[in-house]
Design brief:
mainly alpha, 0% strand, globular, disordered N terminus, signal
């Protein structure tokens, strides 16, 4: 850090550290980002430690600097910091103004970042810029277009048609210039394309066999159907999928099951789950998706399916981790009538493995028990109350549970 501070002192940056606007202007004039772009994140951390509140210009110059140094991960870090501070990123014009030559990978990163905010007009603007620069649209561009329409607010009536249109168009994509997906930094950091472009499959990208990477467009499209609860669009996509003679991967089945359950079609969800699990290794996440989604509405049929799915999971030696257990217990604890059988079963599954779910799930489960006619000295109620008290001590005073 001493080298960084000496460099900043030599360039006259530190004396202006209490003025973020002046500091941003100094960044614009300095060559720090050209010969040492890796120091920009350290410079930003120093600003925060010194109590300097960055402004939009500060972030723009930091991002442009990292892009000039081909440090995409740092650029995304600064973009996320902007969002946390309530500043909407507007990067493309800023980079153009500074003469940054954008690569295909940069365009796609910007496209998918804007897609997450539902800014369809800005996403289309990037597509036009890519075309003007002689770059073809690849599957990640079409994935971004689907995501943009899915996230558009207010929701657009033509979104289902757009999803199908983009999937169809993506079949003819080709590179005019090869998009660099094997940059040295990404390889060294083990960053996948799915993580780089913030796709729904990002958390599964390093799981062997969970996703087939050639199905990216279907991953994003079917995930969008699940989020939107559009069964008709899902089935149109599955029909397109079958005509191409593809095989489902776990992610596609998981999202299709989620979509069916959100639409109240339990039988179709169960059928898809059983067909996949009868022929392929089934990850624990798929069991959890079926069990959690089946509890929507707390219908007798849904709770029966959830219970049976969890029992199969136990029989096959699958175990819940804290996140899965928390999600399932939180969902099951919303049951207002009935015997609370599913919630109790999930709690017992976690207790067997000495797993403590997160505070909100334990609290919801405790309240559900208290709403039932259970004696105050019931062993289960006493145990849950003790766990809740221990969590409360760790988190500090928040609310009264009694």
């Amino acid at each position: 850090m001493g080298l960084l501070k000496n460099s900043l002192l030599l360039q006259g940056l530190l004396p202006l550290s209490q003025d973020p606007v002046s500091l941003a202007r100094k960044f614009r004039g300095t060559n720090l980002w050209i010969w040492r772009p890796y120091l920009l994140r350290d410079a930003y951390d120093d600003m925060l430690l010194d109590g300097v509140q960055p402004v939009r210009d500060t972030f723009h110059n930091l991002i442009v600097g990292t892009m000039k140094g081909s440090r995409l991960q740092d650029a995304f870090y600064f973009r996320d910091q902007m969002r946390e501070m309530g500043l909407q990123p507007d990067l493309l014009e800023e980079m153009k103004a500074h003469g940054v030559k954008l690569k295909g990978e940069t365009y796609i990163c910007l496209l998918n970042a804007l897609a997450a905010t539902g800014c369809t007009d800005q996403v289309y603007a990037i597509v036009r810029d890519m075309t003007a620069a002689g770059l073809g649209l690849n599957k990640f561009c079409y994935a971004g277009l689907i995501t943009a329409f899915k996230n558009k607010t207010p929701a657009s009536e033509d979104t289902p048609a757009k999803i199908l249109e983009f999937v169809q168009q993506s079949k003819g994509w080709q590179y005019v210039e090869r998009v660099a997906n094997d940059s040295a930094e990404n390889i060294m950091m083990n960053v996948s394309d799915e993580e780089l472009y913030n796709l729904p499959t990002a958390e599964f990208a390093h799981r062997r066999g969970f996703i087939f990477k050639q199905l990216t467009i279907y991953h994003v499209a079917i995930h969008a159907c699940a989020d939107l609860g559009s069964k008709e669009t899902l089935e149109a996509l599955l029909d397109m999928f079958s005509k191409e003679n593809f095989n489902y991967d776990a992610f596609i089945v998981m999202q299709a099951v989620r979509c069916y359950l959100r639409c109240g079609d339990i039988d179709s969800a169960v059928k898809m789950f059983e067909e996949f699990s009868s022929s392929k290794p089934t990850p624990a996440e798929l069991y959890v998706t079926l069990a959690e989604g089946a509890m929507i509405g707390y219908t007798p049929r849904g709770l029966e399916v959830a219970q049976a799915t969890l029992e199969k999971m136990t029989e096959r030696k699958f175990f819940l981790n804290p996140k899965m257990g928390t999600d399932l217990l939180l969902a099951a604890s919303g049951e207002k009538t009935g015997g609370y059988t599913t919630a109790n079963y999930i709690w017992d599954m976690l207790q067997t493995r000495n797993i403590i779910p997160a505070f909100p799930a334990v609290e919801a489960y405790y309240k559900g028990l208290k709403e039932r006619e259970i004696p105050s000295d019931d062993p289960r109620l006493v145990n849950v109350a003790r766990v809740l008290d221990n969590l409360q001590l760790r988190l500090g005073p928040r609310r009264n549970f009694q």
